[in-house]
Amino acid sequence: MRDFNYQRPNSVADAAKALKGEAKLMAGGMTLIPTMKQRLASPSDVVDLAGVKDLAGIKKDGNAIVIGAMTSHDEVAHSAEVKKAIPALADLADGIGDPQVRNRGTIGGSIANNDPAADYPAGCMALGATIVTNKRKIAADDFFKGMFETALGDGEIITAVSFPIPDKANYQKFPNPASRYAIVGVMVAKSGGTVRVAVTGAGQSGVFRHKDAEAALAKSFAAGALDGLKTDAKKLNSDMHASAEYRAHLVGVMAKRAVAACG
User: Fold this and answer.
1) Taking Cα atoms as reference points, which of 184, 144, 140, 192 lies closest to residue 163?
2) What global pTM score does this model have?
3) Which domains does the chain have, with CATH numbers?
């Protein structure tokens, strides 16, 4: 780890001002600290958001659950508000990493990093979430741009994520047994006649919506509607954990499980 300046601002405005040159934001530090230790990242400044108190919290706002960017995974998992309105989101959060990660990692940090095997991007995309920053509001479909890439611009900080409350939703994951990252994770959400299906852990460009699955489930919201579902393995990752072909198979399996669990 190389030398760096440590900053702990008390407001979003001060944090944005500190983001100059090679400065990096730190939320829970679950990604930044390990990469700095390995010298894969060498920021000039680490801007710690832990001092910005108004970035944490969960509330119901109309027909949406709004979660502050610095809210930990554990807080989402055990929130009575989230469990009541979107139990699938609470279950998703409860399956991230281990207790240490869930107590330190944050929803904003996870989304900003956009790891291709992270869980929250699938939750955001399937639920049609809106990512709120200090400058604008961004639809989840427009936010995730590719592996580790997002729509965030210079000086832009995630402040909250707004999740519309669906009629039904469920998330199913085939996890790596060591890291608990998704080898394949599928989130299915139904609101009225609209069905959204998002896949994480599998795509070469990170999280993506499975339009063929959505079309099938819009006609009949039942696991059997996905019989024969095809997922193009050519667009999926192949690594030491699973081949692209195996991931393609798992997408179908996890999607069926998610629909069946919706009831």
Assistant:
1) 140
2) 0.95
3) 5-47 (3.30.43.10), 56-164 (3.30.465.10), 168-262 (3.30.390.50)
